[in-house]
Design brief:
Blueprint lengths: L5 E6 L5 H14 L4 E5 L5 H11 L8 H25 L3 E5 L2 H11 L4 H12 L6 E6 L2 H11 L11 H17 L4 E5 L4 H11 L6
Parallel strand pairs: 1-3, 1-4, 2-3, 4-5
Bound molecules: adenosine-5'-triphosphate and the ligand Cc1cn([C@H]2C[C@H](O)[C@@H](COP(=O)(O)O)O2)c(=O)[nH]c1=O.
Length: about 210
């Protein structure tokens, strides 16, 4: 049995990650690939419980270090209970956010530093990495408009300042520079089908 693959879809708020998750899943399924769709924070029973703690309540509910630790704890459970079993049976996992969100949000924008947050991942998930991280990039203001159009309500972290979200985007750009083979920036402007085609091109080399 060939091991499956893990693709993480990343980016700022409202850039189209959930939309593209479904589109990619449909295309992969048509090629006969078993696909497991998941998300972070969440993706396992324990991690979904931690999601509530992280995304609900006052913005200052957690200090920056506690927030990063909670994301790392949720990810550890998600990797062990959902991702590794799927990979072992040969499925592909597509995750709506993964480690690189922690590096960009808590590490870069939250001021903890990318390398300290990566250290938490090394401990929590034995530095398990996705085969490819696809970062959808869009002007933050356009992403906010798309997200507002969808549901109007921002969560604890989504509701942070434009400066914070600008730093998140800068963090993702930094990650793509540091690890160009694993982390790819994908232009998220244009219609859904155009963006899906860009994403498929960016994983073409991983296809069986
Ligand atoms: N290419 C596109 N052009 C215009 N609108 C889009 C495009 N892709 C998605 N949308 C719309 O933008 C909104 C946000 O999309 P989606 O929920 O997929 O984003 P997201 O990145 O998962 O958001 P969040 O970070 O808040 O979870 C939805 O209303 C969706 O229909
Ligand atoms: C995995 C992860 C997520 N976040 C933030 C990013 C978003 O504001 C929320 C998740 O909400 P979504 O609408 O379901 O994408 O959480 C983060 O700050 N750090 C992370 O590691």
């Amino acid at each position: 049995m060939t091991r499956g693959r893990v693709i993480a879809l990343e980016g700022g708020e409202g850039v189209g990650k959930s939309t593209q998750l479904k589109a990619l899943s449909d295309l992969l399924a048509k090629r006969g690939i078993e696909v497991v769709l998941t998300r972070e924070p969440g993706g396992s029973e324990g991690a979904e419980a931690i999601r509530e703690l992280l995304l609900q309540g006052e913005e200052k509910r957690w200090n920056a270090r506690a927030e990063a630790l909670l994301f790392a704890a949720a990810r550890s459970d998600h990797v062990e209970k959902t991702i590794l079993p799927a990979l072992e049976r040969g499925a592909w996992v597509i995750s709506d956010r993964f480690l690189d969100s922690s590096l960009a949000y808590q590490g870069e924008a939250g001021g903890l530093g990318i390398s300290r947050v990566r250290d938490l991942h090394e401990f929590g998930s034995e530095d398990f990495l996705p085969d490819r991280t696809l970062v959808l990039t869009l002007e933050p203001s356009e992403g906010v408009l798309r997200a507002k159009h969808r549901d109007g309500e921002a969560d604890r972290i989504g509701g942070r300042s434009p400066a914070y979200h600008g730093a998140v985007l800068a963090g993702f750009r930094k990650l793509a520079e540091q690890e160009p083979d694993r982390v790819k920036l994908i232009d998220a402007s244009g219609n859904e089908a155009t963006v899906t085609a860009r994403l498929m091109a960016a994983i073409a080399d991983l296809m069986p």
